[in-house]
């Protein structure tokens, strides 16, 4: 099994491949950066974008990963969601998040937060980014 390295951020488990040039990329952000320079040629080295703070690979292992653990690379994609940013502009959402963070029982706090329709919309916006359906994938 070969290692598929993202041509943008050099993440070693890239899951997506450009249909034009067949180079691998790992995320929506890397796909967008790749598309800006893709010439469609398999031979050309068209992915020479230097790493920036927003695309650097993060090697923060989870202490207790579960089957529901979302990879760090997918979580990093949240920063590019306009919908998510709009929800975070709402003081009600920020207050709910603050209460969840302060609570000694985070499971209970999240359950309470999920009774608020606006927080449910925020959670759905997050899921849309980290687990997009086939139709919603940009590349």
UniProtKB/TrEMBL annotation:
Entry keyword Metal-binding: yes
Pfam families the UniProt entry points to: zf-HIT (PF04438), ZNHIT3_C (PF21373)
Keywords: Metal-binding, Zinc, Zinc-finger
Domain HIT-type: 6-38
Keyword Zinc: yes
Signal peptide: none
An example molecular function term from Gene Ontology annotations: zinc ion binding
Name by which UniProt lists this protein: Zinc finger HIT domain-containing protein 3
